[in-house]
Design brief:
There is one protein chain. This protein is an alpha+beta fold and about 300 residues long. It is built from 12 helices and 9 strands. Helix content is about 50%, strand content about 15%.
Length: about 300
């Protein structure tokens, strides 16, 4: 079992957690080893002949997994509509005070939008104003969108001084790889450059800023930002951060500080809201799939 074959199988196992078969180009882009195209094609052909993986409608999948190609195609078609909506919503988000960059994250970033999914956004904010920015956006959603999460769900904020994401694992690397930059192309490019570490996990990855607009200034936005300058703006930002921390602890009854920090990171430079502990669940399922696959096929997938 060559390094490239192992990388292909590990990648398919990872995305099998989501029931997400991959095209040839997606698989090449996401495998965890640097490989030439010819070597990659040869490894794919040999795995197909071994009847370990299969291909249908241009999608590769594990033979032992549940075929979800029809569902993947449905999600892809549905995503086209919501990509248009996300571009409009990103413009509304960008108009709000202290927002400096907007990217699409979650299922829509992978063009795998189901009927029950929300449009998730990743926001880069002004340093020292993340929690004011978050609070203003939440108020905007409640007042103008009737608190609807379908088109407007923001679960991750960072600031322009802290662009590097510290959680270095395959889950985080994959989520960053799929982010779709929509607002402020220069800042989004800086963000991607600050997170070049994801190439350790995805060495064939190439990022794309196509479709991302340049930074714009809005008069009303600038006026509102001036209202919150100085020490009282600093105190207000800290106040909203403290409220978030206390409410999260009470609501979810979290006693494990390490898990709380992963799912509800709340610092002056980052605001994260992942109440379902998705990262932990995905990594558990991924490791279980690898273990079961190795036992079933009597193969060693360690690097």
């Amino acid at each position: 079992m060559t390094v490239t074959k192992k990388a292909i199988l590990r990648t398919l196992l990872y995305f099998d957690v989501f029931g997400h078969p991959l095209t040839r180009s997606e698989l090449f882009r996401l495998i965890g080893t640097k490989t030439a195209n010819g070597e990659f094609e040869q490894a794919l052909d040999e795995l197909l002949k071994m009847n370990i993986i299969g291909i249908e409608a241009e999608y590769f999948f594990l033979i032992t997994g549940v075929s979800s190609i029809k569902e993947r195609i449905k999600k892809l078609r549905r995503s086209k509509k919501y990509h248009r909506i996300s571009r409009f919503m990103s413009g509304l988000i960008y108009c709000n005070p202290f927002v400096r960059g907007v990217l699409v994250s979650g299922s829509l970033s992978k063009s795998a939008f189901s009927k029950h999914d929300d449009i998730d956004f990743f926001v880069i904010a002004e340093p020292g104003r993340i929690w004011l920015c978050r609070t203003i956006l939440m108020l905007f959603k409640k007042v103008f969108l009737l608190n609807s999460k379908k088109y407007f769900c923001i679960n991750y904020f960072i600031d322009t001084d802290t662009l590097e994401i510290p959680d270095r694992n395959i889950f985080t690397a994959t989520e960053i790889a799929f982010l779709i930059p929509l607002r402020n192309s220069e800042l989004c490019a800086d963000f991607l450059a600050a997170n070049k570490w994801i190439n350790t996990f995805l060495p064939n990855l190439k990022t794309d800023l196509a479709g991302c607009s340049e930074a714009n200034s809005f008069f009303i936005k600038m006026i509102l930002e001036k209202l919150f300058k100085g020490k009282w703006g600093d105190r207000l930002d800290s106040y909203f951060m403290d409220i978030y921390r206390e409410r999260s602890k009470r609501k979810f009854g979290l006693t494990d500080l390490e898990m709380f920090d992963i799912n509800f990171k709340s610092e002056k430079s980052v605001a994260k809201y992942h109440p379902n502990g998705y990262q932990h669940i995905v990594m558990q399922r991924f490791n279980l799939k690898i273990s079961e696959f190795q036992t079933t096929h009597k193969l060693d997938l360690t690097r």
